[in-house]
Amino acid sequence: QELRPKSLDIKQEELGDMVEKEMASTSEAIEDAVRRIEEMMSQARNESSGVKLEVNERILNSCTDLMKAIRLLVTTSTNLQKEIVESGRGAATTQEFYAKNSRWTEGLISASKAVGWGATQLVESADRVVLHTGKYEELIVCSHEIAASTAQLVAASKVKAEKSSRNLARLQECSRNVNEMAANVVASTKSGQEQIEEKDTMDFSGMSLIKLKKEEMETQVKVLELEKRLEGERVRLGELRKQHYVLAGGCDAAEDEEARPAPAPRRGILKKPPIAQKP
């Protein structure tokens, strides 16, 4: 009982309702994200100018394009799910179909939650970047997370869909578009970060020779510190991923172990009879 995923505590008859609620909640989160980005855009135009305004507009425009791509993905995924249920339930009700395919349904719910969560985190990170209280790296990580959760949603939908389904083909096309828009967010974020940092830190025209030498030594120390910290964080990331795989795959591995047939008992090794010697 302790090894069972927590989602299995939900009654099976509630699964169908949860799918619809989660997809609706994801759609609402994306609509809210689009509105917040538009508000950030107008705020950035009022409070910044020059290079910072150019960078903020480019990042926020790429985030808007990504949100629109995710919104189309969720709509197409919803249409595909309806098609899957209608073609597979037969005489059963929608609720009975979801209950009968509970593992698939739970995967669908999990994927939908991941997409909505990723969109929300992206907007919050963009807000902090525009207000100069956040890190550009947060936007890059959020973009990667959205691409990963999109792949999870497509994989969950593809399991039950017909290969010839038009909705499946549209969903795969939407997934590719989301990946492309996420890559655009990463590219605009990196180029914007370089522009801002170059503007803020590369103006040495007013420094004396002694000041320049001191800055050079301090920068060398900082580089060594960052390299050491980077090495430690990579080790930490590796351990976190190991634990993630253990927790995510532990239940499935246990079930596979139960389902796997017991190995047949090994027979004794037959030895060759000795070759008769010629007289």
TrEMBL record:
Molecular-function GO term, any one: clathrin light chain binding
Keywords of the record: Coiled coil, Cytoplasm
PROSITE patterns listed in its UniProt record: I_LWEQ
Subcellular location: Cytoplasm
Domain I/LWEQ: 7-248
InterPro entries documented for this protein: I/LWEQ_dom_sf, ILWEQ_dom, Sla2_fam
One cellular-component annotation, GO: cortical actin cytoskeleton
Residue ranges, annotated region (Disordered): 252-279
Chief location bin: cytoplasm
Cross-referenced SUPFAM superfamilies: I/LWEQ domain
Any one Gene Ontology BP term: endocytosis
Coiled coil: 207-243
Name this protein carries in UniProt: HIP1R protein
Protein's organism: Serilophus lunatus
Gene: Hip1r
